[in-house]
Amino acid sequence: MPRAGLDARTVTEAGAALADEIGLAGLSMGAVAERLGVKTPSLYKHVASLADLQHRIAVLATTEAGDAMRDATQGRAGQEALTGAAHALRDYVTAHPGRYA
Known about the structure:
This protein has 6 helices and no strands. The protein has helices at residues 8-22, 29-36, 40-43, 50-73, 78-95, 97-100. 23% of the residues are buried.
């Protein structure tokens, strides 16, 4: 039975945070499990594989970056909107280098 509070989103967010710290290339299921305080096999109840986790992190990053750019362009047009979107994306990538990779 899955641990209370552990679900695909929790595993993905933990993986994304860890990727920001150590880089996406260094990410492993074992490292994510250690971060969450569970045994590695427990993760496979929520994500199919490391590749699946990496895909979920990419989707999360795309969504987060898109949200930041959308928020930065609200009420703006033209050059101001483009500049706002570019700055928002740069700020996101700087804050989350692992998940952006």
